[in-house]
């Protein structure tokens, strides 16, 4: 990002400045000179000549605005030109300029002078006098005069209504470009405001009210001049997402305590089980479980155990690319402990435990521990999505979906389900499309990880220029960046990819063994294909951090797809999901307990310590 610079002919002392007026400017070559002149003349009408400054916050312009602003700054010491080589966004430009301003009263208004300048003295004095901390003009108060075309007025009313409803604001107009802040209020709020574009001033006003600052809103006369730079599709939709983001941060996230999270996770688990009992007789499920072959259940557990050394070796290969060499046995124990944490604590709190274990027992820094965990998660998601996509495409290509639909039409669960030829074709088309998208996503992400150019931000930016989209782009870029940590080395990429495939293949084979333990006897090809898909979708459902160990989520997903895509009775499918998950969780718990004893690690301490470190890292990154 271009470095902002303060362009003046000579350094000038501004110790007597009380009021700083910032004019955000982007390609304003036709109006900026008149705007600055009118602003200076208006300020001279009620302030001492040396008590104010006017800052042109030029935001990466590509016209003559920088040249004009520099010339005016050279001619008048009270005028400053604050330049940025690249776009900072309207909010970003304002924040940078306010931070560099000398005044204790910080003012800004739009450069088109849509708000009548006779209101400037009232705006300034409401804050300068100390009566209020924040002041804003309003185009929606009873005494205002505002000539607003419908294409501006209606969206503005909807927007302000949403802000008042969701963010509990008492103001009528949050986006009138005519505002003032005390230095104290600005400094207290600036670090909390995350938007850097059109939502910036709305967020400032909302957070100012939440923080207890005195906010004044007064009616102004307003008349639009020229075309608005707000994109009614991109920017308004983007600001809607910012309303939801701010609502989450201010109203929801503070209430998500550990106790609430645990209670919600347990409630979700109970609700999931209760929901399944509405459609499947629990006694039938228990009957199926009671007839399970103990030898095959034990064999399923033995098969699943084989995946854990593979996990340790994969983690070893990932850490090696980050510059750390550790034994696969130690890393297997660390993974056991972290996965046990996920079973015990909701919201996947155990994920970060691994970073604590490798830091406490091997001195690997937390950033490297978190990065290695992210890389592993990326490969897991890519592998699971890829497997599901391949199976769907395979079933559609071989006619498997049509065969399954035919079986359903004969009434697998005892009822008659009529599936027409058109429905069969529709299922095949949809399944093929989903599979192709999944495979394309896997291939696209893998190729992006090896590409020199970054296409993510340019692609996402087509949908909106809002800072929330910048956040989404950052998340996707981090996703690709984590993959690049390993993708840069073809050998390492291949090893981690193959081990990921082996790990999830073992996971599926475990589920197949459980199905055989319950007496399922269907075509092996169909069973393998459907099992791969059901297990993949079940594990994708577990990605949502809603219940401890994904209990309930996995069972629902597995049961739905196993019963729908194979001739397996719903009660048997649910029994298989429950038993499969129980076998895997039991192996995880036993391995976790043994690992905690051998490595002398307290799970509770690990969860609390890793959570604290993670929160500090997130705070620093923001």
UniProtKB/TrEMBL annotation:
Keywords: Cell membrane, Glycosyltransferase, Membrane, Transferase, Transmembrane, Transmembrane helix. It comes from the Archaea. SUPFAM superfamilies: Nucleotide-diphospho-sugar transferases. The chain crosses the membrane at residues 260-280, 292-310, 381-407, 427-447, 492-518, 524-544, 556-579, 585-607. Its main location: membrane. It holds the Pfam family LPG_synthase_TM. It is found in: Cell membrane. Residues 20-189 form the Glycosyltransferase 2-like domain. This is Flippase domain-containing glycosyltransferase AglD. It comes from Haloferax marinum. The lineage of its organism: Archaea, Methanobacteriati, Methanobacteriota, Stenosarchaea group, Halobacteria. The gene is aglD.
């Amino acid at each position: 990002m271009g470095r902002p610079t303060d362009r003046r002919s000579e350094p000038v002392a501004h110790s007597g400045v009380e009021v700083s007026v910032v004019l955000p400017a982007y390609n304003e070559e036709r109006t900026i000179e008149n705007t600055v002149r009118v602003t200076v003349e208006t300020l001279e009408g009620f302030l001492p000549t040396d008590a104010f400054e006017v800052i042109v916050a030029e935001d990466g312009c590509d016209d003559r605005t920088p040249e004009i602003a520099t010339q005016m700054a050279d001619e008048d010491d009270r005028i400053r030109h604050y330049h940025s080589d690249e776009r900072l966004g309207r909010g970003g430009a304002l924040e940078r300029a306010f931070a560099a301003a000398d005044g204790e009263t910080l003012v800004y208004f739009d450069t088109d002078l849509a708000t009548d300048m006779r209101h400037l003295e009232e705006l300034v004095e409401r804050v300068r006098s100390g009566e209020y901390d924040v002041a804003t003009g309003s185009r929606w108060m009873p005494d205002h005069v505002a000539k607003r075309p419908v294409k501006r007025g209606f969206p503005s009313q909807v927007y302000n209504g949403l802000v008042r409803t969701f963010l509990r604001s008492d103001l009528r107009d949050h986006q009138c470009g005519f505002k003032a802040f005390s230095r104290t209020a600005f400094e207290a709020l600036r670090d909390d405001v995350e938007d850097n574009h059109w939502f910036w001033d709305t967020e400032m006003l909302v957070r100012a009210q939440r923080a207890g600052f005195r906010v004044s809103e007064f009616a102004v006369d307003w008349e639009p001049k020229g075309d608005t730079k707000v994109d009614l599709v991109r920017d308004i939709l983007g600001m809607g997402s910012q309303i939801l983001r701010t609502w989450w941060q201010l109203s929801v996230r503070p209430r998500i305590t550990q106790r609430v999270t645990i209670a919600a996770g347990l409630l979700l688990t109970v609700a999931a089980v209760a929901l399944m009992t509405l459609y499947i007789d629990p006694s039938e499920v228990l009957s199926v479980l009671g007839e399970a072959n103990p030898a095959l259940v034990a064999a399923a557990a033995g098969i699943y155990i084989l995946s854990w050394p593979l996990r340790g070796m994969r983690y070893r290969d990932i850490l090696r690319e980050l510059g750390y060499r550790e034994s696969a046995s130690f890393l297997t124990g660390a993974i056991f402990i972290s996965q046990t944490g996920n079973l015990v604590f909701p919201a996947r709190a155990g994920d970060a435990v691994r970073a604590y274990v490798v830091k406490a027992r091997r001195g690997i820094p937390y950033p490297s521990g978190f990065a290695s965990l992210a890389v592993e998660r990326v490969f897991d998601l890519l592998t699971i999505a890829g497997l599901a996509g391949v199976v769907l495409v395979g079933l559609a290509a071989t006619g498997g979906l049509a065969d399954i639909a035919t079986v359903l039409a004969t009434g697998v669960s005892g009822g008659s389900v009529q599936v027409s030829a058109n429905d069969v074709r529709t299922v095949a088309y949809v399944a093929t499309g989903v599979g192709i998208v999944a495979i394309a996503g896997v291939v696209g992400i893998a190729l992006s990880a090896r590409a020199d150019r970054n296409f993510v931000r340019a692609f996402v930016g087509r949908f909106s220029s809002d800072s929330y989209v910048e956040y989404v782009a950052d998340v996707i870029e981090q996703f690709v960046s984590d993959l690049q940590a390993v993708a840069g080395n073809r050998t390492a990429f291949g090893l981690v990819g193959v081990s990921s495939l082996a790990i999830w293949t073992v996971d599926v084979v475990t589920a197949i063994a459980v199905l055989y333990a319950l007496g399922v006897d269907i075509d092996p090809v169909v069973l393998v294909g459907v099992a791969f898909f059901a297990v993949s979708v079940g594990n994708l459902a577990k990605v949502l951090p809603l219940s401890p160990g994904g209990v309930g989520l996995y069972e629902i997903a597995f049961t739905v797809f196993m019963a729908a895509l194979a001739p397996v009775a719903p009660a048997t499918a649910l029994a298989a999901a429950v038993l499969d998950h129980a076998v895997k969780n039991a192996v995880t718990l036993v391995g976790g307990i043994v690992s905690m004893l051998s490595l002398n690690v307290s799970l509770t301490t690990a969860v609390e310590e890793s959570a604290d470190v993670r929160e500090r890292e997130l705070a620093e990154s923001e």
